[in-house]
Amino acid sequence: MGAKSVTILIVEDDEGTRELLRDACAMTGYEVKTASDGQKALSILRTENIQLVITDINMPRMDGLTMLEKLRKEDNQTPVLMLSARNEKKDVNEGLRIGADDYMVKPFGLEELSLRVAAILRRSESKEVTSERLSYGPISLDDSIHQVTFGEEPVDLSPTEYRLLKYFLERPGRVIPKETLLAAVWEIDFRSDSSVVDTYISYLRKKLHQQGFEGIKTIRGVGFQLLADK
């Protein structure tokens, strides 16, 4: 998908920030639409073909989290990149839980924004269906039907949680550095202080650490590891 065929929706109540983001995306070659709150954004998303949403969290009328929740309830899987202030960690976690694809903490550089946008768009383009089936310990993943099970019970994972788990299942027992996961799962191959990996590791643990199984290990100072043992 070339940049000219991509339309990005910027949702931001601050006019100066909204225009800055609009100009940054337009300079990269994307078509850009803007909205000043979540309610206006939903109206655009329901009527136009949008490939990516970049949204602030705190906005009047309808905030970014409410907009995202309504979007996902309508089964609209348009990728969403959230922008948050440093004191909005709980809101970020909630956004990731209900279906955001990534987040950035203000202030951030426009170069990093451009790289994040490109990475999200690449991921949304490359959702290929394969017949691969992976199993390790009590966890199984069937890529042909996009299903994860723990024992015999299905486990509901977000798209990002699914990609992260699949990466671990393809490398059982191997210690994987955080930087490697950022590059492979989020396609972030530059220096970043993002805590998105740690956040999603915690989500996987909440869903998969059950019945005595605690196989997703943190190797301090190195990375993470999936083990089959309880």
Question: What's this model, at a glance?
Answer:
Keywords: DNA-binding, Phosphoprotein, Transcription, Transcription regulation, Two-component regulatory system. By secondary structure, the chain is α/β, with parallel strands linked by helices. The protein has helices at 15-28, 38-47, 64-73, 89-98, 110-125, 159-169, 178-185, 196-208; strands at residues 7-11, 31-35, 52-56, 80-84, 102-105, 133-136, 139-142, 147-150, 153-155, 176-177, 216-219, 223-226.
Outline the secondary-structure elements.
Elements (H helix, E strand, L loop, with lengths): L6 E5 L3 H14 L2 E5 L2 H10 L4 E5 L7 H10 L6 E5 L4 H10 L3 E4 L4 H16 L7 E4 L2 E4 L4 E4 L2 E3 L3 H11 L6 E2 H8 L10 H13 L7 E4 L3 E4 L4
Parallel strand pairs: 1-2, 1-3, 3-4, 4-5
Antiparallel strand pairs: 6-7, 7-8, 8-9, 10-12, 11-12
Helix pairs in contact: 2-3, 3-4, 6-8
Number of helices: 8
Secondary structure: helix percent = 40-55%
Q: Distance between termini?
A: 43 Å
What is the CATH third-level topology name of the largest domain?
A: Rossmann fold
Compressed to H and E, one letter per element, the order equals EHEHEHEHEHEEEEHEHHEE
Cα Rg: 18 Å
Q: Care to count the β-strands? A: 12
Shape label: elongated
Strand order of the largest sheet: 2-1-3-4-5
What do you see in this structure?
The chain has 230 residues and is an alpha/beta fold. It has two domains: 119 residues, Rossmann fold; 94 residues, Orthogonal Bundle (Arc Repressor Mutant, subunit A), CATH 1.10.10.10. Helices cover 40% and strands 21% of the residues. It contains eight helices and twelve strands. A five-stranded parallel β-sheet has the order 2-1-3-4-5, sandwiched between helices. A four-stranded antiparallel β-sheet has the order 6-7-8-9, covered by helices on one side. A three-stranded antiparallel β-sheet has the order 10-12-11. It starts with 6 loop residues before the first strand and ends with a strand. The mean pLDDT is 87.
